TrEMBL record:
<dbReference type="Pfam" id="PF25019">
    <property type="entry name" value="LRR_R13L1-DRL21"/>
</dbReference>
<dbReference type="InterPro" id="IPR032675">
    <property type="entry name" value="LRR_dom_sf"/>
</dbReference>
<feature type="domain" description="R13L1/DRL21-like LRR repeat region">
    <location>
        <begin position="51"/>
        <end position="178"/>
    </location>
</feature>
<protein>
    <recommendedName>
        <fullName>R13L1/DRL21-like LRR repeat region domain-containing protein</fullName>
    </recommendedName>
</protein>
<dbReference type="InterPro" id="IPR056789">
    <property type="entry name" value="LRR_R13L1-DRL21"/>
</dbReference>
Amino acid sequence: MLPVSMQDLVNLRHLDTRGTFLNEMPIGMSKLKSLQFLSNYVVGKDEGNKIRELGALANLQQSICIFNLENVVNSNEASEARMSDKDGIDLLELYWPWNWDENIVDFQIEKDILDKLRPHSNLKQLEIDGYRGKTFPNWLGQLSYDNITSITLSGCRNCRVLPSLGQLPSLKHLSISNFERLEIVGAEFYRDDESCSETPFPMLEVLSFWSMPCWKEWHSLELNSFPRLGELTIRNCHMLRG
């Protein structure tokens, strides 16, 4: 645990806690308005250390990892983090724990929360780990994210459908792993608009699928897809047959 008096360091500009095992942040991180770099934010359950504390940190730059997103109870809390306003963030990592009970999870609320965590379009790298919804919000894969070069999706074990990532014009590296319920990769992977004539995945160089135990079929409907693909990895996908 960090000192409870952290909120008094109002001139603090750089806080790097990587390699630590914080359970939550101290109360009142929103008072550190001079912060330009915050490596990690661990979402708490109490007033004063919830995700809304990030909303006041308008000058954050470079990267941020947000942990314990299971503690965000609704989309209003998520929207108060104002992630879409943080135009200096290049790398965003979002983490939920993998050991959750699907009987107590509202999948629509989970989707709404991720929707409100939408980053600024300046983002270059995105990692989502342990997301608990069944589908992804529409912002993931939109053309407006023309700076994204790398996406990692892992442990989204309840997702049945991949997001439409083929429309991202600068995407070079894509890793998808531990989607335990996904059975088919279909046309939605390439584009969400059938009228779009752009080549899917025009810049993708590296594509990997790992540990997809129910994946059976990959419908490669776009003959001109992946024109720059140089490396394809498929591992521990034992049901894949065509």
